[in-house]
Amino acid sequence: MCFNIVTVALFLSFLLCSNALQFLRGERSYSAEPLAGLYHTRSHVTQDTVNRLLDVLQAYRLTSVYGVYALHTHLRVADDEVLYLTQAPEGNFTSISVLPYASVRSDSIPMSHQVLLAGNTVELVPIEHGSATPDAISARQLLGEAIAHGLLHALAHVLSGSPQGHAVALSQILPIHRNALAKGQVVLNQLPSESRQVAVIAPELGRASLGLFTRGIASDEECEVAAGWLTATGK
């Protein structure tokens, strides 16, 4: 009997992960090419655009799982590589490493998507991947449901009326972001090397530039800064 229960649990887990790995409508297959144009390039996204994108996420009940990311990267990624996110179980530390895409392709899912305007809709371009945890799978399923109800057209409406040159992404809100906001602190991203980025909880941004914007995770519904980047080289 115990064997049957374990077998059923493993089968259900397999089905859940398999569904999560399916493409969402409007989602491109992964390519490292978009990351080349984001290397050491500031997003220049305006607060007005951030607020309007958060309005859309709120309307589709996604603000508990996704934020708006002012997209850029300080890591070089080759054609066959991917940015891969690893999280500490305590939710107080994350690491993003440059890994061969083939080594994580079968059991990872996109954690953030660049939002690219394409006529009256948008395309979602995978930028960072991570382990297919239950939280990550749940967030992706909610994103898929929102897409089925018109999310992509609503995002396109915002971006079509925004200044050109914005590089923005929808990024999953991680335990480290929730922990920081609950303490009234921030997540500070740092670069120990050219192939690895780490994030820790810090009291304040200091000279860092703004990164991930959220809404409703802390005590109010105002736009919150969940994460920031150190300026220039990240040192």
TrEMBL record:
Signal sequence coordinates: 1-20
UniProt organism field: Calocera viscosa (strain TUFC12733)
Domain of life of the organism encoding this protein: Eukaryota
The protein's name in its UniProt record: Uncharacterized protein
Keywords, sorted A to Z: Signal
